[in-house]
Write a structure and sequence with these properties.
The protein folds into two domains: 205 residues, NAD(P)-binding Rossmann-like Domain (Rossmann fold, 3-Layer(aba) Sandwich), CATH 3.40.50; 107 residues, Alpha-Beta Complex (UDP-galactose 4-epimerase, domain 1), CATH 3.90.25.10. It is 39% helix and 16% strand. Helix 9 crosses helix 11. By secondary structure, the protein is of the alpha/beta class. Helix 2 links the parallel strand 2 and strand 3. The longest helix has 22 residues.
Length: 354
């Protein structure tokens, strides 16, 4: 432990936001600790891709295990905690509602209790979500910190519990606990289970002749999509304020899944209508139809605003997926889609000299 450096603990450090936040804080001069779950196959590829795996200190713990959280917080002794860990896929929360609520809601309560008893001066950031709003406004509305919540999934319900707990501990125990109500934010490090990365990854494969169809659910759902590296900076800014508070982080724009698809295929020089198929199995039981956030409060309080446009975001993701697939051709034999489509593996041969 370097006593000359400010220490920070990140839960969910191996996820998209955790990896980008770790990189950002390392560049700020922090000593960065991260909580990782004990799993048979470590999931460190994001930290490796950002070249920071050997620069962070990883501690084994789990949001469902109070003892391990207590040990992790005492060992790192942080000035700041960023709780980014979650069962983060909305669709899966319908299949795993109990686990989702335990991790997303009660997991944060365990952190609050450990901090309350160990060191109440630790500043805590809770990763909240635009999914809290559900269908609380019409298709012409905009969501801000005063908009009512109407969760449409177990994922959002767990996050609402955590947000309420943040307020309760802030007001009851004078703890510095802030919520960042982040709208959808994507990047080249997004998981394939998320629709944006599913689109750019499949379009890249179609462009290279490795696939010929993209199956999606609701093309009319509208989201406020931003770029993850822009958003993690707001997390840090939120914890540097004089007083704890809740802030919406968004782009003030909304785009449909169809628009995302159209832009990705445009970049590939293809007509999306020739490849996209709608499939009922990819539709959620109770979907959020429309999200559009207003980041005015964050902009007025500490000058945050998004730096990356919608089209720039799609381009970054598509080009990186295209590059990933092209890099596979450096070898003599390439096994295509063995993970996503087991039993349907194709072997493509391409000489390095051709």
């Amino acid at each position: 432990m370097d006593l000359n450096k400010k220490r920070v603990l990140i839960t969910g450090i191996t996820g998209q936001d955790g990896a980008y936040l770790a990189k950002f804080l390392l560049e700020k001069g922090y000593e960065v600790y991260g909580i990782v779950r004990r799993i048979s196959t470590p999931n460190y590829w994001r930290l490796q891709s950002l070249d920071i795996l050997d620069k962070v200190i990883l501690i084994s713990a789990d949001l469902t295990d109070m003892a391990s959280l207590s040990e992790a917080i005492q060992k790192s002794n942080p000035e700041e905690i960023y709780n980014l860990a979650a069962q983060s896929f909305v669709g899966s929360s319908f299949d795993q509602p109990l686990n989702t609520i335990d991790v997303n809601g009660l997991g944060f309560l365990r952190i609050l209790e450990v901090v309350r008893n160990f060191n109440k001066s630790i500043r805590i950031y809770q990763a909240s979500t635009s999914e809290l709003f559900g269908d609380s406004v019409s298709s012409e509305g905009i969501q801000d910190e005063k908009t009512s919540f109407k969760p449409n999934s177990p994922y959002a319900a767990g996050k609402l519990l955590a947000m309420d707990l943040a307020r309760i501990y802030r007001e009851s125990y004078d703890m510095f606990v802030s919520n960042g109500i982040l709208f959808n934010h994507e990047s080249e490090l997004r998981g394939l289970e998320f629709v944006t990365r599913k689109i750019t990854n499949e379009v890249a494969k179609i462009k290279l002749g490795l696939s010929n169809e993209l199956h999606l659910g609701n093309l009319d759902a509208k989201r406020d999509w931003g770029y993850a590296p822009d958003y993690v900076e707001s997390m840090w800014m939120i914890l540097q304020q004089d007083k704890p508070d809740d802030f919406v982080i968004a782009t003030n724009e909304t785009h449909s899944v169809r628009e995302f698809v159209e832009e990705a295929f445009r970049l590939a020089g293809l007509d999306w209508r020739e490849y996209v198929k709608t499939n009922e199995q990819f539709k959620r039981p109770y979907d959020v139809r429309y999200l559009k956030g207003d980041y005015s409060k964050a902009n007025n309080k500490f000058g945050w605003k998004p730096k990356t446009t919608f089209k720039e975001l799609v381009k970054k993701m598509f080009e990186e997926d295209l590059n990933r697939w092209q890099r596979h051709f450096d070898g003599e034999v390439f096994a295509w889609d063995a993970i996503n489509h087991p039993g349907n593996i194709k072997f493509l041969y391409k000489s390095k000299n051709k």
